[in-house]
TrEMBL record, chain A:
Protein role: Component of the origin recognition complex (ORC) that binds origins of replication. DNA-binding is ATP-dependent. ORC is required to assemble the pre-replication complex necessary to initiate DNA replication.
Any one biological process term the GO annotation gives: regulation of DNA-templated transcription
Phylogenetic lineage: Eukaryota, Fungi, Dikarya, Ascomycota, Pezizomycotina
Domain Origin recognition complex subunit 2 RecA-like residue range list: 246-423
Feature: compositional bias, Acidic residues: 122-134
Subcellular location: Nucleus
Protein name: Origin recognition complex subunit 2
Organism: Paraphaeosphaeria sporulosa
Oligomeric and partner information: Component of the origin recognition complex (ORC).
Molecular-function annotations in GO: DNA replication origin binding
From TrEMBL, chain B:
Identification of the protein by name: Uncharacterized protein
Keywords: DNA replication, DNA-binding, Nucleus
Keyword DNA-binding: yes
Residues annotated as domain Origin recognition complex subunit 3 N-terminal: 4-315
Organism for this UniProt entry: Paraphaeosphaeria sporulosa
Keyword presence, DNA-binding: yes
InterPro entries assigned to the protein according to its UniProt record, in alphabetical order: ORC3 (IPR020795), ORC3_N (IPR045667), ORC_WH_C (IPR040855)
A Pfam family assignment: ORC3_N
Amino acid sequence: MASAKRKRDDQDAEDTTPRKLRTQPVEDENDSLSELEAQTPSRRGRGLLAENGTPRSILKKSGLANELNATPKSNRRLTFTTPTKAAGDETPNGTPTIVRNADRSARRKSNRQLIDRTINGEDSEDEVLGEEDALAQQILSEEEDGQTEKRDKEADAQEAIPVPDTPSKRPRGRPKGTGKNQLAAKARKEREPSPPTELPAQEQYFWQNRPGGNKTSNNTLTSQTLLNHDEYFDTMKSCVDRHEPEKEFLLELHSRAYDQWIFELEEGFNICLYGYGSKRAITSNFTAHVYQHLLDQAPYKGTKRTPNIVVVNGYTPNLTLKDVLTTIASATIPKGLKLPNQISSLLAYILDTLARDPPPHPLLVVINSIDSANLRKSLVQSTLAALAAHPSINIFCTADTPNFPLLWDVGLKAQFQFLFHDATTFAPYSVEIDPVEIVNELLGRSGRRIGGRDGIGFVLKSLPLNARALFRIIVTEQIKAAYMDDEDQDDEDVTATSQSKKKKNAPRTPSESSQGVEYRRLFHKARDEFVCTSEVAFRTLLKEFHDHQMIESKKDSMGTERLLVPFRTEELQMLLEELLLENAF
Amino acid sequence: METKKCYMYAPPEHESRPSKRQRTSESDPHAGLSERLKIYSKTWAEQEKNIQRTLEEADRATQGKIIDFVAANAPSEDAPRISIPTGLIVAGPSIASHGPYFERLGRRIRDETNSSYVVLTSGESPNLKTLLKILIKKVTSRIEEDDDDEDEIGRFATSSRRGPKLLNFDLGHIQEWTSRNMVQSIVVAIQDSEAFDTAVLIEMVDLFYSWLDRLPFVLLFGIATSSESFEERLLGKSLRYLDGQQFDVTQSDDIIEKLFRATVAHPDTEPHIGPNLCRRILERQKDHVQNIQDFVHGLKYAYMSHFYANPTTIFLKNDPKFKDFSSDAFEAIRNLPSFRRYVEEKLEVGDTRSVRQLLCSDNFLFEVIKELIVTVQDALSSLSIAAIVLTRIRESLGITPKVRLSNVWSRAASGELLDSPLLRETMLSIKKTPSDRLARLIDSLIGLTTEDVGRHAKEIDIPIDLEQLQRELKTLIEGNASSEPLRSQDDVRNESVRTTVVAQKVLLSKHKAALSEQDKAYSGIVARFCQQLESYFRFALIDTRTLFLYEVLVYDLKSPHTEVFQPRPRLAIERALATPHDYLGCECCGNMQDAENTLAGTQPATAIVYQLYLESGAIINATDLWSAFHAIVGKDDEDDQSQTMALFQRALAELKFLGLIRPSRKKADHIAKMLWKGL
């Protein structure tokens, strides 16, 4: 690996020297090397010695200080005394026969091969070397260091000599990337992508987004590692949180503010809690507190009447605005009256009733997770704001996401009239989220949702024959597509000409995004196999799969619909086997 | 309960309230709270009245004009209308205050003219049909029966007595309603005209125009930008149907200034808002919200915090008696920094006896407080008055740059005004003022009141004999024969610059022109006025922050105010995850900033994953993340990874829930980073 790189750097050095010819750099280099080799056979050892003994910078300095004669090293002298050789190198046609002969030697060949490889792609280092390569590597490995050393020294020498006769355009100094130090530094840099610490936030951003800087490994999680629901809950049950007392303390701390919050609500403000951790414990405790507080007061004290408090769990899926409004209506509007059906009319009706016949105290509406996905629509928020703006309604809500204030523009904010309190609890969002599900989705394993292959087997058993056939077609097509992808990639790997990993990755991305089967193609395929005759029938069959979450439909970058069975290829294969087995019966 | 969508709260069956009882048995932190809150509600009610009055007065002029406009455009029998009377109400960019404005306007229009008034907003009028339905519903105040969108076309909404039944977006409903209700005009206010779809507006104007012979429409457009840009949006045809008139509403920053004068800088307020907080509120107004309502809420919350959290505010009670206060209240006073300073000053003078009494005798302390609270209140009022006077002088002399009262006041309150360039500059310009302008200035100072206008404005008394000055000035001016006003000796026009060339050098020398007798006398008056003014300012503009009982009379804490109105939720979450110790305060993940290993395995799982997340690039391999996590949290001796995995899954899911990561399709098992900390 290192040797190949060095070779390339030699190449660079060659290129940057204007006197050298560019057409056949490899041969040129080899020539000069061979010349050196031939004349000073013992230099290698010395070079190594020098390399090991002295750091490069010092060597360089001494070279500069002593100018010409201080270092009687043969290699240096050699370069001085053989300017003709170098000149000879310049003429492309005048390649000496020695060189040609030398070219034929096995070492040359392997050398060139290595160089070719290096030029064509650094990445090939990662690839397993062929036997030949290994051999070549072995042959060269001993010399490699010595040679590079020589080249370096030559460069040093060139640098050291004042060359008045060359009108060189090359800036004085070592050609870029020649020095071993720099090489080493470069290698180190590439090996350690860990960022410099203590960067300011914006620098951190650019550092982490620098082009090519983001190399990640290709490791994947085996499907056994992730827990399914049963395992997860079993494990969580036995899990002991070492921070339980601290979390308790945080809750206790927040509970001291209950009276203050009641005061704030009474003064017409609404309250929004934010911060990390589930705040359900706080809301439920606070609700109980307010309930008791109200019980001790005028219209309820001494009577059997109880105050109304509406609680909305924003995180529950399928929660609709209608649910919220109906619950609020049931608390404000006397029973037996018919409620309007439409949301806007219902809202108007509620507000109207409250304005005409205000309750003895404002109705408290507690909303858990006001920023949850199903409450984010602007209609929902504006309706809630209209409720909040009413003097007879108090809103006490929690918000989980870090950017929730973006939900409200100036107008809505003015209506909400929120006071915000930091209520960090560190409590797990045990009710709000389903970790297993979310992680599966995050890592593209949503197929686990329906209970894996077994689940699909159960569903398919209950479906008619042509549905089963259709599913088989989808799976087959998807496996085919996956294989084709793989082949493409293999081809690419073999013929890889691009130098960077990134380039090689580039063509892979679209194939990833175009996973699954195109809707049209699938339909034609299904028709050809007499699974269905019309698109309507086809759709009906697909709907069944959709309902059981056996397939997912996605739009690719071109906007065409693609259908996808959410499993990995290995699992798909097993699935297909099962399907075929079943069909055999 | 937790999985229900929404429900009415019902307490759990078994009654248990241990925590509450526990707390009341200890020394009650809320002692005297209800008493203080009573004082609060009284003071705030007073303030709120002030605010309401100021707001109404700010709108009064424009609203009056609009009402006149509506009344003048009532249709008459003989002159059929050829275009829709349209008021373009340029209400300024603070859209949040448009709603309340149109509400106040509507109240007055309904009260003072015989019209029906309807406000339409863009949100409820996405298309013409919905707009008309809403309009009809609002005008006829018909409570709509159950109707579903689907079948309304085929169904006839109301039962009209004659003719075919009307669809529910037919303006015929309004015609029928007007024939029964006899209104002069139907005022339709388009609250946020910019947010309306232009096509809807054009169609609406066309339709209203075609009904103009039957329905007396008057249109009011709320405009946040300018009337020109509003006109540009409409077609020429629609513009021909409209007969427009523009009304400029007082802009919100002017109103804020007025409110400021009526509340914060009012000499009679009690308690005052401190300069720091006041600056913060004003800055927020200027930079972020531009919303009058918000200013009022900020003020209200300051009052609330002051009375809720500060036990010493109980001494703001009217007509205090010694028996009203508990010893705790006195103890609280003794803990004030300003009390400490007060006592130390006494010690320096050697007044040890009264110090002892202050410390030991509640009764003595009470008498001192009772006396001093009035003095300090006076000092605070005279500070406010001085600020008002200074602003008025600058206004009257037309000194640029214009400095608003809010600015002057907050500088005065923080004790910066006395030696400020602002004051010096003002004094210099007074010295140079010619007699006619000085006369005007003195007149305006004599007529200075606490508020700009209104019945509640009280006269402000400046301890300068302004009348005497005014009289002398008057006689002097009357004796002045020339048409030119009298000039003082500091006036530039009484100086001339003479240029002489001496030994090839140019010498500039100033020469005072010889003053006339009258000018001399005038200069005397100016000098006297300036001197008195200066000593007045020196007396009034003291640094009040060092006064005893300052904490009782002035609320100047940033802390709850900023967080409550300008929260930084993202920062809070990032901090909680990056340094959980800040919140948890536990020993295990304590301060290890010095050591490199800040990632202790004891931290909450999500915090660990988050910190790993911070270190990684834009896309993250979940497998590697897992192995890193496992290396930190996992125990070596256990074979079963499931517990660690469960924690990891939960942490990952929480990050996703918080919107910090999303799936990445670039590579298998990769996730993409969404938020960079601190940006």
